């Protein structure tokens, strides 16, 4: 007779949906609490293939003791993490639980701490994806938000430290708005597909290369000068396929994962259609986290700049947040490519992956404007005396853009490496990602130099 572990439960169905058909192997299936009649534990663990790549997963099964976490569940998760780190494969955590086994007392609290330590120890070594399939509150929400990417289901997932922070249909919009949810899906099936897509794009570990099979012409023309934000990212991506992260958090700036020319990259793009792409403190936080995540797994970062500068209407002092963004770019050793695709005014040009902050390659489209101040402001501040009846303000502003604020001027000073026709941007990015694929963090070791003849 089959044990309960092999019977259909919500948690087991979730496991089978995550993995390729016939590949899931459960681990610790017969581990249970001593002295209990129930022949099962609330946490399922196992491994299998996701789109042909090895992955590990644990699931809080709400059909088993309401998915409550206890010492036994923590033991199973610890063993899962030990094996995942040892072989270098990602971990997927599926959260759906009423909480801890309350009558266990302190050991129940310790169980959460042990899982937190597992997630923290694996951070930056293997990718970790949290899928919220139900209630995830209290310390479970802390664990889930420690993962690299958190996926939620609209009107189903509840992720918040305090149970009841958001109710009904507002549950996931709350999570999106405060940056708890990276991807918010329409239903369970699309959430599972989102997790599978992430596993396919991401490297298996921090020593792996995140490449996919190229299925699109790397030189395909793109109308880059007509697009901005997510629309531009989709046009540049292979087959237009993009995983948009934190879409509802700081919508003026897009952070996404995609492949360009068969090479996985993280893309940061300001959206000029939203408040002229102004860089806000929230946008800076969003971009800084993306750079840090990509750097941990050596995923190249492509930054597309179309911004009139920073948001001066921010209610709080933004300098520390912008400092974190600058530090994220400056300290990241992964490949970094920046492209000015529209306006790049003031601090937005410097902070968003400039040459000064360590970009390996800085490009610009021909019709872009790179300026310390907006041309109309610069002229009003510096060149009012040149405005005459024969030379109106518009002519002086055009002269400023041509002589001081043009991409040619930036290229002449070495702040831009090349000016690329808009239609050729995808081809140039594909070529640059190929060139930087083997970028070394330090000068390679050598035995000795080769002497002259």
Number of domains: 2
CATH topology of the largest domain: 2-enoyl-CoA Hydratase, Chain A, domain 1
Distance between the terminal alpha carbons, to the nearest Å?
79 Å
What is the overall number of helices?
14
What fraction strand? Answer: 15-25%
DSSP helix fraction: 25-40%
Query: Mind telling me the C-alpha Rg?
Result: 25 Å
> Would you identify the CATH H-level superfamily of the largest domain?
2-enoyl-CoA Hydratase, Chain A, domain 1
CATH architecture label of the largest domain: Alpha-Beta Complex
Structural class computed from helices and strand pairing: alpha/beta
For the record, the CATH class of the largest domain is Alpha Beta
User: How many strands appear in the DSSP assignment?
Assistant: 17
How many strands, what sense, and barrel or not for the largest sheet? 8 strands, mixed
What is the 3D form?
globular
What ranges have pLDDT less than 50 throughout 5 or more consecutive residues? 1-5
Mean pLDDT: 87
């Amino acid at each position: 007779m089959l044990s309960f572990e092999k019977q259909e439960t919500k948690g087991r169905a979730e496991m089978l949906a995550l993995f390729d058909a016939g590949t899931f192997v459960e681990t610790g299936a017969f581990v249970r609490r001593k002295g209990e009649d129930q022949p099962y534990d609330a946490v399922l663990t196992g491994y299998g293939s996701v789109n042909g790549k090895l992955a590990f997963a644990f699931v809080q099964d709400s059909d088993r003791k309401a998915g409550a976490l206890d010492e036994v569940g923590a033991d199973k998760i610890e063993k899962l993490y030990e094996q995942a780190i040892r072989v270098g494969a990602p971990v997927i955590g599926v959260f759906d639980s009423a909480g801890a086994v309350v009558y266990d007392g302190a050991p129940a609290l310790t169980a959460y701490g042990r899982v937190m330590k597992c997630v923290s120890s694996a951070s930056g070594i293997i990718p970790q994806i949290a899928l919220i399939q139900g209630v995830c509150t209290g310390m479970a929400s802390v664990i889930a938000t420690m993962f690299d990417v958190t996926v939620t289901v609209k009107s189903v997932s509840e992720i918040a430290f305090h149970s009841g922070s958001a109710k009904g249909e507002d549950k996931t919009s709350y999570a999106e708005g405060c940056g708890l949810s990276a991807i918010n899906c329409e239903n369970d099936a699309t959430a599972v597909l989102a997790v599978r897509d992430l596993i396919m794009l991401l490297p298996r570990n921090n020593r792996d290369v995140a490449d996919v099979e190229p299925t699109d012409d790397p030189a395909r023309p793109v109308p880059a000068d007509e697009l901005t934000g997510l629309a531009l990212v989709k046009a540049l991506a292979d087959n237009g396929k993009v995983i948009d992260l934190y879409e509802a958090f700081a919508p003026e700036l897009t952070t996404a994962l995609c492949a360009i020319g068969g090479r996985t990259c993280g893309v940061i793009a300001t959206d000029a259609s939203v408040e002229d792409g102004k860089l806000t403190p929230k946008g800076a936080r969003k971009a800084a986290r993306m750079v840090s995540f990509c750097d941990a797994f050596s995923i190249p970062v492509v930054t597309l700049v179309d911004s009139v500068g920073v948001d001066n209407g921010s209610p709080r002092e933004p300098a520390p947040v912008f400092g974190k963004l600058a530090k994220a770019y400056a300290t990241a050793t992964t490949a970094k490519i920046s492209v000015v695709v529209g306006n790049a005014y003031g601090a937005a040009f410097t902070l968003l992956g400039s040459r000064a902050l360590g970009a390996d390659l800085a490009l610009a489209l021909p019709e872009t404007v790179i300026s310390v101040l907006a041309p109309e402001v610069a002229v009003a501040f510096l060149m009012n005396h040149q405005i005459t009846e024969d030379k109106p303000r518009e002519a002086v502003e055009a002269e400023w853009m041509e002589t001081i604020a043009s991409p040619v001027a930036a290229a002449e000073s070495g702040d831009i490496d090349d000016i690329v026709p808009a239609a050729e941007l995808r081809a140039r990015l594909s070529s640059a990602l190929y060139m930087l694929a083997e970028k070394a963090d330090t000068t390679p070791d050598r035995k000795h130099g080769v002497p002259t003849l």
